[in-house]
Structures are given as C-alpha cells and as structure tokens.
Write a structure and sequence with these properties.
The structure holds two protein chains of two kinds.
Chain A: H1 13-34, H2 52-74, H3 81-113, H4 121-140, H5 146-157, H6 160-173, H7 194-249
Helix pairs in contact in A: 1-7, 2-3, 2-5, 2-7, 3-4, 3-7, 4-5, 4-6
Chain B: H1 2-19, H2 21-40, H3 47-73, H4 80-86, H5 91-120, H6 128-153, H7 159-186, H8 194-221
Helix pairs in contact in B: 1-5, 2-3, 2-5, 3-5, 3-6, 3-7, 5-6, 5-8, 6-7, 6-8, 7-8
The chains are: A mainly alpha, B mainly alpha.
C-alpha cells in the first residue's frame, strides 16, 4: 500500500480555476433558468428543469465514483489509501446532492401535484438511496482500525449499485407520477422546447463542475486529516521534547 | 460447506434453546409491537384489519433486527468470533449456518405474529400458498441480508445504533414486496402477488450469493 502524496492545502491553482468555472456556469444557469418562459400548465415552476435533473444526475455520478473507488480499493492490486478517501469524499458530496434533489423535487411537487411528497417509485427509491448513503457515511465515522474501516466501508458502498439502478429505472419499470427520464426528451421533436434544453444542459455542466470542485476539496481535506491523525502524535511529542530541551538548556 | 453450516446453525440454535432470549425477549417484543400499532391506529374502524399485512411485516422487520444482533452478540463474549475464525470451518458454511439459525427463529416469530394478526386484528388468512411462499422467500432474504450486515457491524462499539441504519434501508424492498404479496393474498386476488414473490426470491438469492462469496473476508475484518 503506498501512501498518497500530501497536498500542501485543500486549495490549488487548478481547483481555484475549477471553482471560478463552476461559479460562472452556475450563475449562467441561474440567469438562463430564470429567463425561461412561463409554461401554460406549471407557470414559473417549470423553470425548475434547469436545476433539478442536473442535480439528480450529478448525484448518480457521485455514487458511481464512490462505487468505482471502493472497488479499486477492494481489488488487492489497486489497493491504495487514496481510493478509500475518494470514495468517502464523493459519497459525502453525493449525499448533499441527494438532499438537494429531494428538496428541489418537493418544492416543485407542492404547486404541481398539490403535495410535498408522494409515495411513487422514483421518490421512494431516492429516499432509500439517501438513507443508504447516510448509513454508509455513519459507518465511515465509526472509530476503528483504519484498514478495517476502509474495507468494511468499501463493501458497504457496493449496495449503491442496485440502489442507483433501481432509482434510475424506477420511472420505466413502474407507472410513476414522476415523469420519465429528462435526457430521453432531448431528441428533436420531443416535448421539450429549445430554451429549456439549453438551460438544462448548462445546468448539467454547472452541477458537474460544482461536484468536481467540492469533491476535490473534500478529498484533499480527507488526505490531510488522515495525515494529521497518523503524524500528529509524533509531531506533538517532538514539540514537547524540544520545549523540554529548551527549558533544560536555560541557565 | 453444508456440514459446517449445520454445525454453526446447531450451535446458534442450541444457545437460543438454552438461553431462551429469543423466546423470552424477542417474541414478546414482536407481539408488543402489534399491540402498540393497535394503540396508534384506531382499532374500531377496521384500519387494523386493512393494514394487517404491512403491520405484520414491520413487526417481522423489527424482530429480525433483534434476532440478527443477538446472533452476533452471543459470539462477542470470550472471543467467540476469533474461535470461529480459527475453527477451520468454511466461511460460506458459517454464513449459511448463522443465516439458517436466524431464519428458523424468524419463522417461529412469523407463526406467532400470524396468530397475532388473526386474533388481535381479526385478519382472515386467504391464499395460504402465496402467504407461505412469501414468508419463506422474505425470511431467507431477511436472514441473509441481516447476517451480511450483522458481521459488518459486529464488534463495533456502536453496533446497536449502526446496524438498524445500515440494514433497514437495505431490507426496505423486502418490506414492500412482502406487504404487497400478503395484501394480494388476503384480499383474495393472489394473482397480483406472484410478481412480488419473485422479487423477494431474487432479493434472497442475491444476498445468499453475496454472503457465500463475501463472508470470509468480512469475518476476517470483524
């Protein structure tokens, strides 16, 4: 097992550039989304399409990264600390995106369906996915030996595969109140208008960049945290010893 | 593998038979859950009869949590898990044995709870084939998933609080499918229940396979 090279801090020139890019596309999404025409059935609420599908899809990407990194950690030949830390970082950001998916969906559902929540297959499977990730993140915070925690967490992360698959295909497999996959409506002649497609596509880019930026920072923080855990005691001991020597050297 | 499974299942069941924790604590708890549902829902308007399948399976789910925790708690003292690791038994056999013991306890609990919903909720049990098939498939799935997640949490200081959070979302499909299958059977339209039974069977097969393949490494880490 090789140790990951330690970054000097959580920021770097690259991540600063990424952050600026994320902020700019996010701002563009806001402007484009708010300038969308009012739809006849939903009024202003149809503008939610600029953020809700992008957030939900980014959540899948986050979990895909978690599962991939966990698998790489479990595979003995590719076992490196960094995969474990990346899996955790991505899942944490994914949980935020899942919470946002549920929140934006509810905000849209209240005026459109008349209720904050319905028990249809898509909403239910997203909620279960959310709880699965909370369980995974709780497992990662349990104090135990590092290698053991990493292995157990990596195994637990694999449950996200069926959960994401069911969540994604829920609208196809069951008759849901939630509409079908948004990406399937992008082909010409489908129900979505050009301006809506443009806003949603910019939204996808923006959420993807925000995810990458957050995960990168969380990952670097995790690397530093781990290093502080491992080396912190040695450093503290050395400092105390140096203090002692200094005191002893005084006349 | 099968011989090892029988040995481990025999060990767990013998401990339960002698300690009577399942009989004296888990079984009364399961019935108590049924009684509490009656307090929470208005018993006079037939709500209990209509929701009997769901309440039955929620009670089974809660009891299966206790049974799983118990299954690992008996090995926590005197380094029982280390002994099991050193015993040279096939890990797949250990998994199947522990799951079989939990499954057997759950079957007993389900019989008790079945009598409970007939007596307390005045439910009528129609479609016995579908009911029994659902029970068997759901029990296999619950026991297998419980044993896999139980070993993940075993030996941790926070296992009592962590296991429900890990296990309940995982077995949520079992609750859903078993409830739908039972509703179909009790309402006299068993045809609607068979797809749900298939889903339960798929769930059980997946977790049994995952346990047989992955239990060895997990037990090493526990």
């Amino acid at each position: 097992m090789t140790t990951t090279e330690t970054p000097a801090g959580i920021g770097s020139r690259g991540s600063f550039f990424l952050g600026v890019l994320a902020a700019l596309t996010l701002a563009t999404t806001v402007v484009l989304g708010l300038s969308l025409p009012l739809s006849t059935e939903q009024g202003p609420y149809s503008r939610m399409i600029a953020i809700h599908p992008p957030i939900a899809t980014t959540e899948y990407v986050a979990y895909a990264v978690t599962v991939l990194a966990s698998a790489l950690y479990l595979w003995p030949r590719t076992r490196q600390r960094r995969w474990d830390l990346l899996a955790g970082a991505s899942a944490e950001v994914g949980a935020v995106f899942t919470a946002l998916t549920l929140a934006t969906g509810s905000i849209w559902g209240r005026p459109t369906w008349g209720v904050w929540w319905v028990w249809d297959a898509r909403l239910t499977s997203t909620a279960i996915l959310f709880f699965l990730v909370l369980g995974y993140l709780a497992l990662r915070r349990v104090p135990m030996e590092l290698s053991r925690r990493s292995t157990i967490s990596a195994v637990a992360a694999l449950i996200l595969v069926p959960a994401v698959v069911v969540d994604h295909y829920a609208v196809t497999w069951w008759r849901t109140l939630h509409q079908g996959a948004s990406l399937a409506q992008l082909s010409p002649g489908k129900s979505l208008d050009g301006a809506f497609i443009a806003a949603m596509l910019v939204g996808f880019v923006a959420m993807g960049l925000v995810y990458a930026w957050l995960t990168l920072h969380r990952f670097r923080l995790a690397v530093l945290e781990e290093r502080a855990d491992i080396e912190g005691l040695d450093i503290a001991l050395e400092e105390r010893r140096a203090e002692g020597l200094e005191l002893a050297a005084r006349p | 593998m099968w011989r090892d499974a029988a040995l481990v299942a025999g060990k767990d069941l013998r401990i339960e038979a002698r300690s009577r924790v399942t009989l004296n604590q888990v079984a009364p708890f399961a019935v108590l859950v049924l009684v509490l549902f009656a307090f929470a829902l208005d018993p006079d308007r037939g709500i209990l009869t209509r929701t009997a399948p769901g309440l039955f399976w929620v009670a089974v789910l809660f009891s299966s949590l206790l049974a799983t925790q118990r299954s690992y708690a008996v090995e926590a003292d005197d380094a029982g898990r280390d002994g099991l690791r050193l015993s040279g038994l096939d890990p797949a056999g250990i998994f199947l044995g522990k799951a079989a013991a939990v499954a057997l306890e759950l079957v007993g609990l389900q019989i008790l709870l079945g009598i409970g919903i007939v007596v307390l909720y005045s439910a009528h049990l129609h479609g016995p084939v579908l009911l029994l098939g659902t029970c068997l498939a759901a029990t296999a799935g619950l026991a297998a998933a419980g044993t896999v997640y139980g070993v993940l949490a075993a030996g941790l200081r926070v296992r009592e609080t962590l296991l429900p959070l890990l296990l309940l979302p995982v077995v949520a499909p079992v609750l859903l499918a078993a409830t739908r299958a039972w509703e179909a059977a009790l309402s006299g339209a068993p045809g609607d229940g068979w797809p749900w039974l298939r889903l339960l069977a798929v769930f059980a097969v997946i977790y049994l396979a995952a346990g047989v393949l992955g239990y060895g490494p997990l037990l090493e880490e526990a």
